[in-house]
Amino acid sequence: MQTIEVTEARSRAERDAFIKFPWQIYLNDPAWVPPLIIERKTFLDRKKHPFFEHGDAALFLARSEGKIVGRIMASDDPNYNFLHGTNTGCFGLFEAIQDRDVASALLRATAGWLRARGRDEVMGPIDYSTNYMCGLLIEGFDQPPTVLTSHNPSYYAALLQSCGFEKVKDFFAWWLADRTEALHRLRRFADRIKPRQRATIRSADLSKIGEESRRVREVYNAAWSKNWGFVPFTPKEFEFMANELKPILQPGFILIAEIDGTAAGFILCVPDINVAIRHVTDGRLTRFGLPIGLAKLLYYKRRIKTVRLVALGVVPEYRRHGLAEMLVLRAIESVMIKRGFTEGECSLVLEDNRLMNRFLEAIGAVKYKTYRIFGRRLDD
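-> structure tokens emitted (380 positions)
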């Protein structure tokens, strides 16, 4: 029997090994998009990431005969547990070779870390909280992930299930290939509600990103408050995300719906920068002192033709005003049509968000990926 040793990654060298391990897993996976190493370092930096102002996390590496064979992150978010009256921790950033012993050892280390903090349940994959990347891909392995979505080998679900994990919740990703048909259907809807439409829709002012992100955060927290897994963004977390997205945002990609001068809804779209990042195969923007990766990124960035609808939210009191439909219509007009984006992804949509799933199907989108959150009790 092989001996699996799991240790916490504390040093800079161990953190770097944690970040670079996925290259071992995805070497022959044509759909994988390698992360940018500089972005991963910032995401995992306890001094830079605002999650650590209220939560905690630990990184673990699994080794067999001295070779790294897996990794995992354990995280604890007191804000989530206080809001939901739960006692749950999370695992995320899970990567492992196809070996149950390795997966089991990593998950035991996570469980031990969470038990030490008094938690009695675990769910994931969730990177810190549901406000960040989450969900294990269980359908749609042949298509590359869009920006801010995950990708993994097909055997990961079986590894988790063999360790006692069961389904908690599914999310869907929808692909919109025919923007013209969607536009036609939405314009007919807009014509019907126009006489009673009180809202005005404007582009967010990117020169005032701090002020605009505050408005969007307030709508987001109000709109998502009843959703499964919701935890409110703190002001610093939302500012962190806004700064991360700012380099790829363009005018018109954030639209805000206002009624009587008050923000009532928003839609956030981003160019699928993964189309460009996948060409930076080593995850480095510089090599041998030269900006080779950066040059590739900038070259392919100009050729992006896909966009991702990251978030769409309307505060509860205005949900029957047609704001969601009007925001999607304006996004297709001002983002996809005007700027030459030919296809788009709408994700991640909760499986029980029937209104949104039916709406996306009605405008011609096709459900092409499914992501799953798994969970189990820690005392089993």
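The two ends are 24 Å apart (CA to CA).
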